[in-house]
Design a protein that fits this description.
The complex is a heterotrimer. By secondary structure, chain A is mainly alpha-helical. Chain A is built from twelve helices and two strands, in the order ααααααααααααββ. The longest helix of chain A is centred in the first third of the chain and has 32 residues. Chain C is mainly alpha-helical. Chain C has one domain. Classes of the chains: A mainly alpha, B alpha/beta, C mainly alpha. Chains in contact: A-C, B-C. At the B-C interface, strand 6, helix 2 and helix 4 of B face helix 1 and helix 4 of C.
Chain lengths: ~280, ~300, ~270
């Protein structure tokens, strides 16, 4: 075969390669989108299959989980019950392989806890605390979950006090428990908490998730502040959030980044029909 | 017409980053005639194997041209006519000789009958018939060498290139190969080989090229090394006077002084007059020798001269 | 052509008689045996676990075949100068590349076919023992997935041939090929992660980075394309277009690599 012929064949096949390659990547993207969440091998097997590279294996598995969540976010596709099952078991396996790995815990706190999987999140965090007993953030997360989501102030307080005992914990922790009990489930609390988490997070897709949530909460907190003012002026709470506009406290209602309608809870807390999760956004 | 000719061929190896380049072949020119046995000799690193690899197209000359049948050598133009035995051949471990020869025959376009016929003949010749079904990894060094020769000769090439064909062989093996080369020569094949064993080169070659430092130092024709070809008797004699020398030369003897010793070569048919003359003059015959000039001495001398 | 074939035949024979083959076969047998013993430990989805383990065992055995035997079949030729002998015959360098590729491919194919037969026997046995736990399992999807294990290995063989054609040392070839395998197996996860994380940030992903990702996705073989383990494990149907594109992807990638190897090999010198 002459060189010219060889070169021509090569050029032709390169063209074919680019074409097929593009097709294949598209098919893969489609398959990943429509495909069911992958199966996670239970950790008692993956520990063996990792052949001593448990750390590396857990890193890879965690990367996979992050990508999975990121892709669902990107496509604004709500996570199905199967997807959640995958996420929960996958994080469980990741932390079984390497229980000292902090990232899965913060990821679980940022996603699972906020989207209704509080018990699962707490279970995972408890495991983390057993190993990372030096890290104040884990009991702090658990404590927050009890305060903010479960309104169990006593348990929450205990966890935060535990966190405060650990070295490196911020000075405000001892007083935080008291403040949390006072503010209870107010948006202000969550803002503080989210800001703390953001400071600990590098992953761009997870940061984006947190930032949207922070924005929603800041807007809710703004509304809550106005409601306090309204209360001071009128001696009663407004019946609906819209009353704030009608009475001229604000010009226009801010938009819930999750696309829901603002609702006023009896506790005086402002919430949204979106429940601040992407999962219900399409509804 | 020359069958193969090297014209001012140069080759430099680049062993990689930060290492000095090695000039393996430097301005090498020589010709190979159809049907001759040409031996290339020289010290290690003289560039003999490089020359052979260039002829096979495994490497390309940096400058200069190699002609084959009057045309510049191109990939594949010589392969059909060539049989090559590398130095210390490494053959496939898990194959047996029969499979190796089948591969050789098939790739050269022989059919199954021709392969088995030629193969059996060659293996019988080189005493490998018993071992033909054994994996090659169980072969001894000498057996591998002989297997390599079978591999080179199976497709009945018109040019045979042998790189150190005698290395690793015992005296019997050497005899076998020697006879085989003589037979090939009888069949009119062109044989090109490198060897360190000068005795073999001397006995086999029509011409010898001496290589040193990548270049051809000298070419010898067969007439230049009149060794014992069976018709000449070489005697080691006591010192001779000038008139005696003159007389002996007149009688058909040839004389040579070597490190203070006198050598006398006499052709068989004029041996008697010379012998009578020696007896008359009372010249003592100190002994006989098998070779007129030892190539070794000759080459050492030339190389020393060149290095100086 | 006859050069390619005769070279492929001796390459195949040299490979199939390699002692390491016993080791690899033994390992695969061990994994199949393990599968039979372990199957009872699972409460449900025994079919899934069985298919998973069988296909993984095939894949691992294929990898070992390529890396421990395949690499030697070509790289050692060059390492030990046997190639001088081969190229002194009327076999061109291009024929050498394709002949070696076909020989190694045939060797891998035969070895994997034997292992697949054993593996099918395992699946058949477990299918018979626990018929209720095999859910939607279908043999056709299982064999398709097994076939794509072979396709993946065929692509890896072309990578080995390619690296053998540019390096002089079989160990370097091995290292390069293993690296290519690791990158190829993870590239999809990494690229999709990067894409999704940029989309999440709503960052206009910088042009140079996007081009870089684009180039990487063409250069590196995406080995996840050939992974149908999940489908086989759950007996899910696979679209014909996906199968077709995956097969075409492998065929074209192999052709490109071998053509490149041929081009490089033509210029190469063998000292």
């Amino acid at each position: 075969m002459g060189r010219l012929l060889l070169l021509i064949t090569l050029l032709l096949s390169l063209g074919a390669h680019i074409f097929v390659s593009r097709q294949v990547w598209d098919t893969r993207a489609e398959a990943r989108r429509s495909g069911e969440a992958a199966y996670v091998l239970p950790s008692r097997f993956s520990r063996i299959l990792a052949l001593g590279y448990q750390g590396l294996f857990s890193d890879y598995l965690f990367l996979k989980t992050l990508t999975f969540y990121g892709e669902r976010q990107m496509l604004q596709k709500p996570l199905s019950e199967d997807d959640w099952h995958y996420l929960v078991t996958s994080l469980d396996v990741v932390t079984d392989l390497d229980p000292y790995f902090f990232d899965p815990y913060i990821f679980a706190e940022g996603t699972m806890a906020w989207e209704g999987k509080i018990a699962e999140a707490n279970k995972l965090l408890e495991k983390g605390w057993r190993y990372r007993d030096f890290d104040w953030r884990i009991p702090y997360f658990i404590g927050f979950n009890y305060f903010y989501f479960l309104q169990d102030y006593e348990k929450g307080g205990n966890y935060i006090m535990e966190a405060a005992k650990l070295s490196g914990s911020p000075r405000f922790l001892p007083t935080l428990a008291a403040r949390l009990t006072y503010y209870g489930g107010k948006s202000e609390t969550a803002i503080l908490f989210l800001k703390g988490m953001l400071a600990d997070t590098e992953d761009p897709s997870f940061r984006a998730t947190l930032e949207i949530r922070l924005l929603a909460l800041e807007r809710a907190a703004e509304l809550e502040k106005m409601i306090e003012r309204f209360k001071d002026d009128h001696g009663r709470s407004p019946n609906q959030v819209e009353e704030l506009v009608a009475r001229g406290y604000i010009d226009v209602l801010p938009i819930d980044p999750y696309g829901g309608q603002w609702i006023l809870l009896k506790s005086g807390r402002v919430f949204s029909t979106s429940k601040f999760t992407t999962a219900r956004k399409k509804e | 017409m020359n069958l193969i000719s090297f014209n001012n061929v140069c080759k430099t190896y680049d062993p990689g980053l930060f290492k000095k380049k090695i000039q393996a072949v430097n301005d090498l020119s020589f010709d190979l005639q159809q049907g001759e046995v040409f031996g290339l000799i020289g010290p290690n690193g003289a560039g003999k194997s490089t020359a052979i690899r260039m002829l096979l197209g495994l490497i390309r000359p940096d400058s200069g041209t190699i002609f084959y049948k009057g045309r510049p050598l191109r990939e594949g133009s010589i392969q059909q006519d060539i049989g090559y035995l590398p130095e210390n051949p490494y053959l496939y471990d898990h194959l047996n000789l029969l499979e190796l020869l089948t591969f050789c025959g098939r790739s050269s376009g022989l059919d199954a009958d021709a392969i088995s016929e030629r193969g059996t003949a060659l293996m019988t010749r080189l005493n490998l018939l018993e071992a033909q079904k054994r994996p090659l990894r169980t072969f001894s060094k000498g057996m591998l060498q002989r297997a390599g020769i079978c591999f080179a000769l199976l497709h009945d090439p018109s040019i045979v290139i042998l790189d150190e064909p005698m290395s690793g062989l015992d005296p019997i093996g050497r005899k076998m190969v020697f006879d085989l080369v003589m037979e090939l020569k009888g069949e009119g094949k062109t044989i090109f080989f490198c060897s360190h064993i000068l005795n073999d080169v001397e006995r086999l070659c029509d011409r010898i090229g001496l290589m040193n430092r990548g270049g051809l130092v000298r070419l010898f024709a067969r007439a230049d090394f009149p060794q014992n070809d069976g018709n000449t008797v070489i005697l080691h004699v006591a010192p001779l006077s000038a008139p005696q020398r003159h007389d002996l030369q007149a009688l058909g003897g040839r004389l040579r002084q070597e490190e203070g010793e006198m050598l006398l070569a006499v052709a068989e048919d004029c041996y008697h007059p010379v012998n009578r003359y020696l007896e008359q003059q009372g010249v003592a015959v100190l002994g006989g020798r098998s070779e007129w000039v030892s190539l070794e001495e000759l080459f050492m001398g030339i190389i020393k001269e060149q290095e100086a | 052509m006859r050069g390619i074939l005769s070279l492929a035949v001796i390459t195949f024979k040299e490979g199939i008689r390699n002692r390491s083959l016993f080791g690899i076969a033994l390992l695969a047998l061990f994994l199949f045996g393990l599968n039979i013993t372990v199957a009872g430990f699972f409460m449900r989805d025994i079919g899934k676990v069985t298919v998973d383990m069988n296909l993984s065992a095939l894949s691992v055995a294929g990898l070992l075949l390529v890396f421990f035997v395949g690499v030697n079949l070509m790289a050692k030729d060059i390492d030990r100068k046997t190639i001088h002998l081969v190229l002194s015959k009327p076999i061109s360098r291009i024929e050498y590349i394709w002949g070696k590729y076909l020989g190694i491919l045939f060797f891998v194919f035969v070895s994997l076919a034997i292992l697949l037969a054993l593996s099918s026997a395992t699946v058949f046995f477990l299918h018979g023992s626990y018929p209720d736990y095999f859910g939607q399992f279908t043999w056709s999807v299982f064999f398709v997935a097994a076939f794509f294990v072979f396709v993946k290995i065929a692509l890896l063989v072309s990578i080995v041939v390619f690296f053998s054609s540019i390096t002089t040392n079989s160990f370097i070839t091995l290292i390069f090929s293993v690296c290519a395998f690791i990158v190829g197996s993870t590239i999809e996860e990494v690229l999709f992660y990067l894409r999704s994380s940029f989309a999440a940030k709503e960052l206009a992903i910088s042009d140079s980075l996007r081009h870089l990702l684009e180039i990487v996705s063409y250069l590196v073989p995406n080995l996840s394309v050939f992974d149908f383990k999940t489908e086989a494990a759950h007996g899910l149907a696979i679209g014909l277009d996906r199968l077709g594109f995956s097969l075409a992807y492998a065929a074209v990638y192999i052709t490109v690599l071998l053509l490149l190897a041929s081009l490089i090999f033509r210029r190469r010198e063998f000292n």
